[in-house]
Inverse folding.
């Protein structure tokens, strides 16, 4: 039995298995806080077998690109993305932290060349659990809150 | 690993085999140079040295290395004389300079500048220091110096003394030494200890690490003592600097308890961490270390140019 905690949408994206409490951050990262996007349906603190409690975000009328999925992976590493077409789940993928993160995260080092030249910031994943990234340019590592602050 | 066209940006890009290979080539070039006086492997090749930040030693050493290989050198030694002052981007400067040269050596005050330059340039780029990040040729010449002095690196007990917190030289050196079977004594004032994550990494990689504030106690154990300067400019605040300034000095009295074969190294310039009286002793290896910069840089220039 599917767990339809919130309403059904005809077209769009369902982001499932977001850590409880992180839905706001997720929609911020995706730039969905503006009122002119599609309808957002949010379920927070939903009981979940896998996570204990989770958040779900449903975005009507919008399919997420892979790059956007990667952005979510940094904050919601276990999220599942469901692409809904004609009321049915047409595609489902688990977000996964890529080995390289390009263009999503700014380097917090003010003296890093990536903050001064016309270049996309890039990070290599040093470890996934706990998440730790190394700037491709200045080679500093960042983890935890610092990652979230620079998304 | 194909060397021709390769960039030398970070010691992190080097495997142990890469390091060993460079050291071997440097040794060969040093011997050849001793025999013949000058070499001509790089005849007709041009090195561009782009020093956006001043550095006498490193720049002269690269230039000397290129001349010894029979090549020639163009470049600048401070950003104030260039179009960077007019607001040109680093990428544009690099794209311009590579039209004039076969290999580029860059020192820049921003971390990551050499990596960016290497991505932009078709010709090989060698990092001569990017802000507080990397200075891989220093690390290679340090290893070369040790290897030349002892005939090996494995089995040595090596002390790193001084500013282990901010000193990029000792961070890179420690990480490169982790490829070898060494014991590391990390000797520093409490405030300037080696960052935890580096210590952890060294241990994970199988290095026996001892952290101590007691220089005198460590001295009798050591084969190599690598001394660094406490750099005022790296400190976030003056007060912290004043607390540790002048907190240690290597002098003849201290070295009385050392092994006869102990070698003292220093990346130079020194202030007062090593008393000049040590210069004449058998322990002093730091001028030899300066000399090592030339064959090591000859090797890197020759290899990346593909002329050896
Ligand atoms: N048409 C729809 N409109 C809105 N939400 C939907 C729609 N179809 C499914 N969902 C939601 O999408 C998520 C995934 O649905 P699915 O039926 O695949 O559940 P599941 O089998 O539990 O998947 P999973 O193994 O990823 O947890 C659930 O949260 C479900 O409520
Ligand atoms: Mg489910
Ligand atoms: Zn950076």
């Amino acid at each position: 039995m599917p767990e339809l905690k919130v309403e059904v949408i005809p077209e769009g994206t369902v982001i499932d298995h977001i850590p409880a409490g992180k839905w706001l951050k997720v929609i911020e990262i995706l730039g969905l806080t503006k009122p002119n996007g599609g309808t957002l349906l949010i379920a927070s603190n939903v009981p979940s077998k896998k996570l204990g409690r989770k958040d779900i975000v449903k975005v009507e009328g919008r399919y997420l690109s892979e790059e956007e999925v990667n952005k979510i992976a940094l904050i919601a590493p276990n999220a599942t993305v469901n692409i809904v077409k004609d009321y049915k789940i047409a595609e489902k993928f688990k977000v996964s932290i890529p080995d390289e993160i390009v263009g999503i995260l700014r380097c917090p080092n003010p003296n890093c060349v990536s903050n001064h030249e016309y270049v996309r910031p890039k990070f290599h994943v040093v470890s996934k659990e706990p998440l730790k990234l190394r700037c491709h340019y200045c080679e500093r590592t960042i983890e935890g809150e610092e990652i979230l602050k620079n998304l | 690993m194909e060397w021709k066209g390769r960039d030398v940006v970070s010691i992190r890009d080097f495997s142990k085999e890469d390091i060993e290979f460079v050291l071997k080539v440097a040794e060969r070039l040093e011997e050849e140079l001793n025999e013949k006086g000058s070499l001509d492997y790089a005849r007709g090749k041009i090195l561009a040295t782009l020093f956006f930040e001043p550095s006498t030693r490193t720049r002269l050493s690269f230039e000397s290395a290129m001349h010894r290989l029979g090549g020639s050198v163009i470049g600048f030694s401070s950003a104030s004389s260039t179009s960077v002052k007019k607001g040109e981007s680093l990428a544009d400067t690099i794209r311009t300079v590579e039209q004039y040269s076969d290999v580029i050596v860059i020192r820049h005050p921003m971390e990551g500048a050499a990596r960016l330059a290497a991505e932009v340039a078709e010709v090989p780029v060698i990092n001569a220091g990017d802000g507080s990040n990397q200075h891989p040729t220093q690390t290679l010449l340090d290893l070369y110096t040790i290897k030349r002095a002892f005939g090996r690196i494995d089995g040595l007990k090596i002390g790193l003394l001084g500013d282990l917190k901010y000193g990029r030289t000792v961070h890179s050196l420690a990480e490169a030494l982790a490829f070898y079977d060494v014991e590391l004594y990390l000797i520093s004032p409490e405030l300037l200890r080696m960052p935890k994550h580096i210590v952890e990494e060294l241990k994970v990689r199988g290095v026996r690490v001892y952290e101590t504030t007691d220089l005198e106690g460590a001295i009798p154990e050591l084969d190599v003592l690598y001394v660094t300067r406490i750099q005022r400019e790296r400190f976030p605040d003056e007060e912290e600097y004043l607390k540790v300034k002048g907190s240690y000095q290597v002098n003849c009295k201290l070295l009385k308890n050392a092994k006869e074969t102990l070698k003292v190294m220093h990346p130079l310039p020194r202030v007062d961490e090593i008393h000049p009286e040590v210069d004449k002793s058998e322990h002093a290896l730091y001028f030899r270390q300066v000399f090592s910069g030339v064959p090591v840089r000859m090797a890197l220039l020759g290899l990346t140019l593909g002329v050896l």
